[in-house]
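Human: I hope this is not a bother. Would you mind checking the protein record under this note? Thank you for your patience.
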Amino acid sequence: MASFDLIVVGAGIVGLAHALAAARRGLAVAVVERDSRASEASVRNFGFVTVSGQAEGDSRRRALRSRDVWEEVAREAGIEVLQRGALVAARREEALAVLEEFAAAPMGAACEILGARDLAARMPSLRGCAGGLASPHELRVEPREALPRIARWLAESHRVQFAWETCALGFDGTTLRHSRGEIRSGAIVIAPGRRVADLAPALADETRMRPCRLQMMRIAPVKARMASVVMSDLSLLRYEGFAAQPAARRLAARLERECPRELAHGVHLIVAQGADGSLVVGDSHHYGESAGPFASAEVEELIMAEMRALFDFGDARIAERWVGHYPVADVSPLVSREIAPRVHAVTVTSGTGMSTAFAIGEETVERLFP
């Protein structure tokens, strides 16, 4: 029977982050993944490592640390950083007031408030904006390319062993039973994303874990070039760092009058550009029983209408559509719990895995191997 210092169940970004943290400490690591490659939340997102807008405290601290690790990993694993920084474009004066309050507080350090003219000069494809906020802290990668590259780099440069298409079935102490046999280890980290109930059903029940479904799409390449990822007014209610500002109450009241359908479907706007000029656009949020497998044409049109109101991209054509899922729970922004001696279950329950996972991995490995 093979033996390792650490077994990680799940090769999404949270699992890979734990594998990296352990490998950097010189530990022998195995990763067990039920699919042939990461295929769930970790590759169905924007690849946007977000700092500004994260909740004050642990979430922001983890995002800053994870951003730094992303820089290191991208350089060493040959991952292209497609965009740097974030631009929050305010269509409404109430949204601009939220951004001004954020920029004036400690979390707004190094961020810049832009007037309408400066915003238009920085990104000419924007239209009808009162102003905006430029944050220098973010970066973006293409997750479909980044996740396989990280796994390959971990295997080649850090001797992490991967068991693909291998389903974890359970554990006896720190021995993992899987569909091809057993692996012995000194510790286990279960990082299965929304599938926590498969190996830790009591934890899933206790935290009332449930799915959040989101709709996203890719727009065929456009001529405009975006140096930064762009967010809009609706995003300010979904990111806690912005939503905590006093002016957010006035923005929420106006959006409730003007955008009731968007709010009902959890729609906000993020637009990120790929190397080929295509745009990743989204998203929406449906929870629990409403998070079924079927995408909605109404929701798609709400997202597209928000994009058209903010950008002049000409005749934007949808080239690809997909549905993503991530877990939410009564515990947020993450569930990290020892479910048995030296067996930890870890899942991000706030949709911020790309932004915070590397820091979370370091924290867990430090607890297991002090």
In short: The radius of gyration is 21 Å. Residues 58-77 form the longest helix (20 residues). The first strand starts at residue 2 and ends at 9. The mean pLDDT is 96.
